Amino acid sequence: DQQVKQNSPSLSVQEGRISILNCDYTNSMFDYFLWYKKYPAEGPTFLISISSIKDKNEDGRFTVFLNKSAKHLSLHIVPSQPGDSAVYFCAASEGSRLTFGEGTQLTVNP
Amino acid sequence: GAVVSQHPSRVICKSGTSVKIECRSLDFQATTMFWYRQFPKKSLMLMATSNEGSKATYEQGVEKDKFLINHASLTLSTLTVTSAHPEDSSFYICSARDPGQGARIGETQYFGPGTRLLVL
To answer: Does residue B113 belong to the interface with chain A, where contact is any CB pair within 8 Å?
Structure first.
């Protein structure tokens, strides 16, 4: 039972354009959502988060949108840079437990 | 930022042997560490939560006798895969929570680089 799903295993965008990574969840008890970024041979690192009481959180080039009615969140990166190429995981929190999606490999082409 | 190390980064062992994986928080004390397992193209699956000085809490479906977790100090947790079999081959990743930062748990959870286990 995959409670957090990232349906796109990969995404390729041109440098300077917007990257949009999507994530869907099924558990309405999740109250906090996070995005992590993972480079090869490294562990995931926290990128940005959003509480379930908000619908948008912005940090520099990164914005996370939450649509609770659709149980959907997305990460927007604009403008995309080649250094953003990595695997992005979305995660949802219920208390102290994190449930992760499968990850999306983002490739930003120069 | 906080650093979490794992050792070894990859290990190959024979079926029936036991393998120990170490997870260390290098610049903070972690009262709570987490062990995850990741299959190819799958999500990180939480296996257990390890609290310093007490027994680990295992997720449903994870065999506690198979995956022994010890959190003997505030900077070290170990995962021992006992009597390993080929189906235990996977990517194991730990994370450690820095309680001193006081933010939401996901934001203060720092991940190690992972250990690739291959059981022949």
So the answer is: yes
pLDDT tens across B62-118, in order? 999 999 999 888 899 999 999 999 999 999 999 998 877 666 667 788 999 999 999
How close, in Å, is residue B69 to chain A by CA atoms?
18
CA-nearest residue of chain A to B57? A97
A68-97 confidence digits (pLDDT tens) = 999 999 999 999 999 999 999 999 998 878
Strands (E), chain A: 4-5, 10-14, 19-25, 32-38, 45-51, 56-59, 62-67, 72-77, 86-94, 97-100, 104-109
Kindly state whether A3 is in contact with chain B, defined as any CB-CB distance less than 8 angstroms: no
Q: What is the pLDDT of residues A42-54, one digit of tens each?
A: 889 999 999 999 9
**Can you tell me the distance from the alpha carbon of A34 to that of A75, in angstroms, rounded to the nearest whole number?**
10
Å between B8 CA and nearest CA of chain A: 12
